[in-house]
């Protein structure tokens, strides 16, 4: 501690800017980690909060995935010996039409018994404020709003509010206002409550409920109730605590969480190199100081502890600042993630508050400090190894010795061999990840050698461009490979991340486009909600016949899709007339005989799985596939595997007759409509809208509009990764600034001499600029090369562990081309300030330096 | 029992039976001092029930809800009941205000178990079953609960005579009724005041554990077609400090009615 106060603190104060830059690396790394995790957690927390608040005193919920079930189930549940109160519920997310209000979550429930489970906490503390409970039930337009929503939009009891329903836009009358607590705080306050039977009608649910909320009879346990209800209802129903919905939401968004983890780790990893670089430089600069300390009796252990202590403090300060910045970032990111959850998963959620999990915050602090200490381990070891006598001599201590270079090269070759073996000799995912880690280590080992080699190769080019400045810049890099290589490594890692994500995005887009062209080829798509993934509004089956009557329509395919729980994971069922589908879809199956699989599926003798579901659930053609449905267990073979991106967790394609039989549900989510050859899309679209004007809420999307929608959602999916990548690049740029600042400080006397003998300020500037551009170029070359390898690993992870998507390896040339000016431009910008500081300092002081 | 003197008051002097909760009251044999108190109480209630027997009943009810702040809301309904007590069926259809017109409640009473109840809402053309679990909830914002709409049968309770009492100077029997096992009720016990002069029920206090939660007063007792009937019922929710007054207009007994009109299909039709 004494050494830290007497030695380290003055050094930090003297090099305040560099200290700040070093800390900034950790700040950014930790901020990204905290920001992304906190935002993700906030959305999850908001979802759980909504579930909790809506659940009220509910101890168990009965669901059948998203499909809902017939009303009769309620009587069975209410008749169970272990059940005290059982109340049905349905939920729908609707558009309010109020600018800036967003969606409204409508909870339909049976108000006669519901207050046993939920506290509506009505304004003025009494349900007399539902102006009249009988009127509320008698009128289908009755609505209770939260005070938060009502106040925000100037709504009072008696006001009318237009909402999009299955029957078109309908005006609802506000007949109650809930105080802003408890239930009213669910869904960020954008919650409305209405009578469940009115809601069934308004949202086209027929005689079904989404779920039943229940409390357990006094003296009976939740486990007893679960057992009784599972026996009574059969395997097609889930009887779980409300919290289980949060777990399902988490499982559904697992792919996204994994993406966040990978890029957060990369950001921290890059930050580590900034620290490493800063400490390596500090050790170099403080050699004489270390020598004096050693001469005065300081042990190697004390020197090592001194540097590790410094790094720990840097890590702690940087991490603490990173946590704060991350929390600020989280708010903005949460909004984006919330929108993503709605558009990708169809689960609308608002995260208005940031849920900072102490575990994440403490974890981030620990990771930041640990990263910092790990980064300083090698410099600390080097500092401890300094010989007191040699320390006072000037030498080329930044140079790599031939022995060290050889050891690095041999180690890299060995690691390369092991990582290749990991790829081809084992199916184990652990072995695969070990191989991936070894590749990263190998690249880092080779980094300094490659930097040195490339610098030497570039020297003639630089000299050719600017004989003096070019040679000086190249020599500076060649003579200090350690300092250079850490910055280059930071740039390289960030670019490898960019290339991998860019390549994955490109491959995903390509694959999705191929799928869309083959499978999404109807001329029109007709949905009850403008968000095609929102499945809470549905059409009645008779609409198919009505549509077929419209002039210009040749074929109508009714599609019912809904999430169910398969092996604990929410997956999507797509039920349609599979024979009709086979006549229109043009795609080669991944597995299965196209001449038989559609017919077998149509006859209910099989199901077709999406490739990603088969991969994630380790299923293959011919396997017996079991689905627990509300009206029995479906046991049919898998007769085909096709590429389908309808859902990230996978799709089960079955015939609608099979679905109707096992779910007793004939409602429709979307109609796929093919036109007569002579019909014009705008004309038919207009006719459909005209046909249902004032009767139903109908959104007609053209083929182009749907594809654009899907691509827009895909863009959204990758947009957050782009933010992380941008931060990673920023961290890398910080590394360049840091290196150049140190380089200039180190060469202050050299630069001063140059100026003293007639060197122009412009020449000094150009020297620094060229040095920076060269670091950028080295990072670019190595980053693109490592990125090519990294992309392979990321695609494998996406295929086997994240989304089950089989993506083709295509190097993202466009991204690479975009990176060249970006990185060189960034390197140049990073060099501007160091270059100015080099030429504007006092010449006398520069010559006195050292 | 041979010593028990059953005093039969003429039909024109029996308690009311309003359809809405009309508990029961009952029978006597108070003039036999050696009869055990429990038997005595039951007989009083039996007699009270006996005197309310009618083949059918029809009236127009005016419902006024007075909340704790003095706000009053009015509604009107038409009630028809076929049969009496344990085996009766009742249809209650709101007629005013316009927003609730047509909303109907069908109650099918059973002598051996809780009634079945359905509500019909014409605006959404849907009926809904009022689950047993919901019987303790308030009946559409009034101070009555759905359970209070049931016609209870004398056999569903055990009775104990608590003694004599007087209300407004009228002599009463004060009887405690306790639901028998199997009879689902939100109330632990009820205390019933029955007039000695005509066996009309004058007050019921419903208790949860030992706390009075609801109090029903039978007011303006008149003889209608030989049945002593309270033309006004006032239910007070003790905890909420609110009350609901039901006034019976155009009350008629033994009106010809068809059984088919007391089904779920029938209330959907009308």
How is this structure best described in words?
The complex is a heterodimer of chains A (850) and B (270). With 850 residues, chain A is an alpha+beta fold. Among the domains of chain A are: 57-241, no CATH class; 538-696, no CATH class. Chain A has 29 helices and 20 strands. In chain A, the strands form three sheets. In chain A, strands 6-7-5-8-4-3-10-1-11 form a nine-stranded mixed sheet, with helices on both faces. In chain A, β13 and β14 (569-576) form a beta hairpin. In chain A, α10 (254-285) packs antiparallel against α18 (481-519), α16 runs antiparallel to α17 (467-479) and α25 (703-746) packs across α27 (761-802). The two termini of chain A are 28 Å apart. In chain B, a hairpin with a 2-residue loop joins β11 (211-224) and β12 (227-237). Chain B has a domain at 11-75 and 132-251: outer membrane lipoprotein receptor (LolB), chain A (Clam), CATH 2.50.20.10. Chain B has a 13-stranded antiparallel sheet. Chain B is globular, with a radius of gyration of 18 Å. Residues 1-36 of chain B have low confidence and may be disordered. The longest helix of chain B has 14 residues, at 37-50. Chain B contains two helices and 13 strands; from the N terminus they run αβββββββββββββα. With 270 residues, chain B is mainly beta.
């Amino acid at each position: 501690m004494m050494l830290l106060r007497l030695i380290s603190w003055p050094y930090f104060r003297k090099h305040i800017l560099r200290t700040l830059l070093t800390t900034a690396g950790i700040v950014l790394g930790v901020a990204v980690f905290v920001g992304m995790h906190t935002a993700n957690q906030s959305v999850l927390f908001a979802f759980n909060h909504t579930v909790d608040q809506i659940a009220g005193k509910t101890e168990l919920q009965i669901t059948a995935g998203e499909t809902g079930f017939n009303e009769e189930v309620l009587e069975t549940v209410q008749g169970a010996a272990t059940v005290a109160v059982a109340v049905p519920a349905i939920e729908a997310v609707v558009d309010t039409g109020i600018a800036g209000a967003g969606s409204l979550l409508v909870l339909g429930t049976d108000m006669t018994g519901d207050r046993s489970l939920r506290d509506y906490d009505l304004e003025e503390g009494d349900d007399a404020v539902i102006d009249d409970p009988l009127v509320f039930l008698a009128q289908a337009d009755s609505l209770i709003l939260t005070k938060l929503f009502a106040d925000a939009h100037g709504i009072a009891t008696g006001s009318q509010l237009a909402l999009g329903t299955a029957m078109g836009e309908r005006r609802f009358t506000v007949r109650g206002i809930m105080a802003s607590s408890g239930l009213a705080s669910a869904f960020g306050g954008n919650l409305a409550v209405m009578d469940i039977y009115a809601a069934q009608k308004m949202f086209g649910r027929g005689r079904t409920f989404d779920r039943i909320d229940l409390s357990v009879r006094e003296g009976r346990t939740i486990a007893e109730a679960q057992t009784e209800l599972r026996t009574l209802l059969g395997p097609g129903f889930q009887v779980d605590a409300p919290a289980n919905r949060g777990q399902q939401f988490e499982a559904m968004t697992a792919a996204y969480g994994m993406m966040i983890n990978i890029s957060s780790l990369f950001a921290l990893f890059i930050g580590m190199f900034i620290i490493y670089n800063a400490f390596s430089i500090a050790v170099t600069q403080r050699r004489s100081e270390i020598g004096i300390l050693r001469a005065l009796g300081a042990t190697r252990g004390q020197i090592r502890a001194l540097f590790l202590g410094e790094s720990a403090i840097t890590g702690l300060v940087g991490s603490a600042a990173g946590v704060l910045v991350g929390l600020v970032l989280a708010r903005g990111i949460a909004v984006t993630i919330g929108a993503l959850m709605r558009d990708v998963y169809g689960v609308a959620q608002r995260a208005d508050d940031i849920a900072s999990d102490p575990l994440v915050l403490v974890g981030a602090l620990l990771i930041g400090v640990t990263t910092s200490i790990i980064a300083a381990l090698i410099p600390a070891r080097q500092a401890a190894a300094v010989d007191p006598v040699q320390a006072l001599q000037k030498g080329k201590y930044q140079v790599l010795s031939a022995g060290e270079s050889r050891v690095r090269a041999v180690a890299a070759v060995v690691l390369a061999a092991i990582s290749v073996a990991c790829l081809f000799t084992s199916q184990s995912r652990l072995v695969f990840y070990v191989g991936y880690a070894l590749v990263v280590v190998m690249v880092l080992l080779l980094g300094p050698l490659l930097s040195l080699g490339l610098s030497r190769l570039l020297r003639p080019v630089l000299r050719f461009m600017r004989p003096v400045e070019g040679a000086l810049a190249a020599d500076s890099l060649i003579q200090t490979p350690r300092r250079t290589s850490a910055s280059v490594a930071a740039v390289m890692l960030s670019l490898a991340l960019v290339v991998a994500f860019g390549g994955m995005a490109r491959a995903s887009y390509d694959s999705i486009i191929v799928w869309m062209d083959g499978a999404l080829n109807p001329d029109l798509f007709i949905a009850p909600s403008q968000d095609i993934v929102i499945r809470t509004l549905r059409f009645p089956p008779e609409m198919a016949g009505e549509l077929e009557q419209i002039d210009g329509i040749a074929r109508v395919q009714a599609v019912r899709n809904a999430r169910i729980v398969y092996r604990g994971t929410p997956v999507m069922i797509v039920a349609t007339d599979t024979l009709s589908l086979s006549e229109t879809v043009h795609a080669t199956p991944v597995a299965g005989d196209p001449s038989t699989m559609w017919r077998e599926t149509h006859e209910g003798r099989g199901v077709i799985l999406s490739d990603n579901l088969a991969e994630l659930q380790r299923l293959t053609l011919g396997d017996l596939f079991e689905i627990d449905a509300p009206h029995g267990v479906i046991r049919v073979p898998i007769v085909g595997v096709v590429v389908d991106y309808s859902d990230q967790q996978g799709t089960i394609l079955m015939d609608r007759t099979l679905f109707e039989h096992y779910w007793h549900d004939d409602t429709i989510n979307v109609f796929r409509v093919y036109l007569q050859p002579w019909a014009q899309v705008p004309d038919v679209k207009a006719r459909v809208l005209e046909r249902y004007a004032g009767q139903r809420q109908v959104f007609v999307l053209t083929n182009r509009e749907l594809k654009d929608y899907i691509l827009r959602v895909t863009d959204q999916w990758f947009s957050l990764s782009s933010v992380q990548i941008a931060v990673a690049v920023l961290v890398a740029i910080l590394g360049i600034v840091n290196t150049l600042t140190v380089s200039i400080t180190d060469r202050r006397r050299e630069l001063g001499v140059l100026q003293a003998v007639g060197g122009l300020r412009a020449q000094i500037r150009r020297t620094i600029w060229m040095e920076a551009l060269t670091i950028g170029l080295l990072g670019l070359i190595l980053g693109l090369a490592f990125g090519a390898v990294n992309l392979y690993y990321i695609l494998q992870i996406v295929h086997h562990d994240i989304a089950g998507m089989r993506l083709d390896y295509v190097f993202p040339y466009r991204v690479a081309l975009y990176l060249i000016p970006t990185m060189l431009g960034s390197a140049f910008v990073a060099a501007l300030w160091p270059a100015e500081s080099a030429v504007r300092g006092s010449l006398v002081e520069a010559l006195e330096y050292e | 029992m041979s010593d028990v003197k059953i005093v039969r008051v003429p039909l024109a002097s029996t308690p009311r039976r309003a359809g809405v909760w009309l508990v029961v009251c009952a029978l006597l044999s108070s003039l036999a001092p050696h009869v055990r108190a429990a038997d005595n109480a039951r007989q009083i209630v039996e007699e009270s029930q006996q005197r309310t027997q009618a083949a059918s009943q029809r009236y127009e009810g005016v419902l006024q809800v007075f909340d704790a702040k003095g706000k009053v809301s009015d509604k009107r309904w038409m009630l028809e009941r076929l049969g009496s007590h344990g085996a009766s069926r009742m249809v209650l259809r709101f007629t005013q205000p316009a927003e609730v017109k047509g909303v109907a409640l069908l109650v099918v009473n059973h002598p051996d178990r809780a009634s079945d109840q359905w509500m019909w809402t014409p605006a959404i053309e849907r009926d809904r079953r009022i689950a047993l679990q919901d019987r303790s909830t308030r009946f559409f914002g009034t101070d009555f609960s759905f359970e209070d709409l049931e016609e209870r049968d004398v056999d569903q309770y055990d009775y104990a005579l608590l003694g004599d009492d007087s209300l407004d100077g009228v002599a009463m029997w004060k009887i405690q009724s306790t639901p028998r096992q199997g009879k689902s009720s939100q109330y632990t016990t009820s205390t019933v005041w029955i007039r000695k002069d005509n066996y009309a029920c004058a007050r019921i206090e419903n208790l949860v554990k030992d706390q009075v939660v609801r109090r029903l007063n039978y007011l303006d007792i008149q003889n209608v077609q030989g049945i002593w009937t309270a033309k006004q019922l006032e239910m007070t929710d003790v905890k909420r400090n609110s009350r609901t007054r039901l006034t019976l207009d155009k009350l008629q007994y033994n009106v010809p009615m068809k059984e088919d009109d007391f089904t779920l299909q029938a209330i959907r039709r009308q």
